[in-house]
Amino acid sequence: MTDTPPISRLRAALPFWMSLGMIPLAILGAVQGGWTLALLPLYGWVSVTLLDALLGRNERNPDPETPEADLFWHRLITLVWFPIQLATILGMVWWVTHTDHLSAGETVALFFGVGVISGTVGIVYAHELLHQRTRLERWLGDLLLATVLYSHFRTEHLLVHHPHVGTPRDGVTARYNEGFHRYFWRVLTTGLPSAWRAERLKLARAGRPVWHATNPFWRYAALQLGMVALVLWIGGLAGLALFAFQAFVAIWQLELTNYVEHYGLTRRHLGEGKYEHVQPHHSWNAAHTASNWLLINLQRHSDHHTKPQRRFPLLQTYPEGEAPQLPLGYPAMTALAMIPPLWRRRMNPRVRAWRRRYYPDITDWTPYRKASLPWPAGS
Questions:
Q1: Is 235 domain-assigned?
Q2: Closest CA to 330 of 247, 251, 256, 266
Q3: How confident is the model at residue 1 (pLDDT cuts 50, 70, 90)?
Q4: Which of 61, 134, 238, 330 has most Cβ atoms within 10 angstroms of its Cβ?
Q5: CA 302 to CA 40: how far, in whole Å?
């Protein structure tokens, strides 16, 4: 027996609303400055990791056939987050450009914290929204990405990452032994051209030119330019510089997570540009309770790749025998990824064990490690 409340109850959804705790911490930091500016990153990384250690793993699986009407309280946090995040970013821009009690260093620290909000929460919620079918949710996802100037993530994620994860075509599948800093530069320089190529090919298959109105890059550009204009109006060039800084911090957070999610995990090449289907063992998972609350079950990543449109409260967890598990939740693992020697010491033996378990017949992993195998056909 369990006292877990029915999934339709507000009580069941409230843990996933822990992201709201970041907003008063940001306000406190803006008003008080000093040591209070450390509270927001500590809340997002350290406190969640400590809670993971205290609460352990949650390996219960909800009924995947739960009606959508029962998920109202879970969905609501993702639906209301855009105005909350926009007000936070613009409010901070106005505050620091119209007051003078924060030093330059404190101002930078404040916007680092704002980037933690928009990266740890905003982009994760955008990811959830972009996978849904409703027009409202997809628009909210686009608006959230515009607040971090990373709108092309929608195309790159939906048209490249999901169909081609674990192959050389997917730039955000981190390669074995590739340190995060090298990976980050590679993704920053190849992501936008990769997304443009994907949309160009999609339009070509429909017999449309790249400048056709249905190319979402025009929407991406309009939303981002609108966001820049709004920030300039509120905070001038100084405000725009701080806005760009928080966007960079958010993108860094996103790509740290992408790095962890598939590090060293590749799909078998079947020859002639064909690859095996995506399976649960092609994603790293973590069943840690608190970090899954903050990241709305993103760490149940194998099931997300199996059922991309499955809403986050219904994502399933897998046992060790079916999908690879991380020793810690994503917040702790992304911190470890910032120190490549420590990351390799912890993760490379796990990747090698994964290879022995799932692909004992592959003796030469060099083409997979160097991503020198052919791109998937038609990509």
A1: yes
A2: 256
A3: very low
A4: 330
A5: 29
> Does residue 3 fall inside a structural domain?
no
> How far, in Å, CA of 128 to CA of 71, rounded?
14
| Bridge partners of residue 275, in order along the sequence | 269
pTM above 0.70, yes or no: yes
Residue (of 172, 173, 176) closest to 189 by Cα position: 172
Q: How many domains does the chain have?
A: 1
**Which of 254, 79, 80 is closest to 153 using CA atoms?**
254
Segments forming the whole domain that contains residue 234:
10-369
Give the tokens for residue 42. 């500590």
Q: Are 102 and 96 in contact (CB under 8 A)?
A: yes
Provide mean pLDDT across the span 101-110: 96
Instruction: Report pLDDT digits (tens) over 324-369.
Output: 999 999 999 999 999 999 999 999 999 999 999 999 999 999 999 9
CA–CA separation, 212 and 167 (whole Å): 29
pLDDT band, very low/low/confident/very high, at 4 (cuts 50, 70, 90)? low
Kindly report, residue by residue over 210-233, the tens digit of the pLDDT: 999 999 999 999 999 999 999 999
Cα 335 to Cα 331: distance, rounded to the nearest angstrom: 6
Q: What is the pLDDT of residues 135-147, one digit of tens each?
A: 999 999 999 999 9
Domain-located, residue 5: no
Contacts of 340 (CB under 8 A, 6+ apart): 179, 180, 181
